[in-house]
Automatic annotation (TrEMBL):
The lineage of its organism: Bacteria, Bacillati, Actinomycetota, Actinomycetes, Kitasatosporales. This is DUF2867 domain-containing protein. It comes from the Bacteria.
């Protein structure tokens, strides 16, 4: 997928070292993307990939409804991409070690929303603040094991 337009970035400081935070990230991303609700939503919007599959444990080639792992740099970066009828998108998690034994976890979203339906979808998901709310809530979950 070519470089997509920037949508937003959110971050959280976590009281954990890189190894501990990376383990949390890999486990929680795999778990959260495997939910029944996510699979139903992926079917409704025509997401690709449609099902979980690919390599396990989590790594390049792992697939979840609506997302495929395209980059996996342990302790540093986890990049997901996907597409559906209204958008092509990427979600990149980056772990940054801080000097005091803590880490910063950042999540960057990039996406394109083609056509009239894409513009409506962007307004509903991004313009409403729903995406930002979901990202902040998700990242807050990484503060604790």
């Amino acid at each position: 997928m070519s470089v997509l337009p920037f949508v937003d970035e959110h971050g959280v400081v976590v009281d954990a070292g890189v190894e501990e935070l990376w383990t949390r990230l890999v486990v929680k991303v795999g778990r959260s993307l495997s939910t029944g609700g996510g699979a139903r939503y992926a079917r409704v919007v025509g997401a690709v990939p449609r099902e979980s599959g690919g390599v396990r444990p989590l790594g390049v080639g792992s697939e979840f409804p609506g997302f495929r792992v395209v980059r996996f740099v342990p302790g540093r970066e986890l990049a997901l991409e996907g597409r559906h009828r209204f958008s092509s998108y990427s979600l990149v998690f980056r772990v940054e070690e801080l000097s005091d034994g803590r880490c910063r976890l950042r999540a960057e979203t990039r996406a394109v929303f083609p056509g009239a339906a894409g513009r409506v979808y962007r307004a509903l998901v991004i313009g409403s603040g729903g995406h930002a709310f979901a990202m902040r809530r998700m990242l807050a979950g990484y503060r604790h094991p």
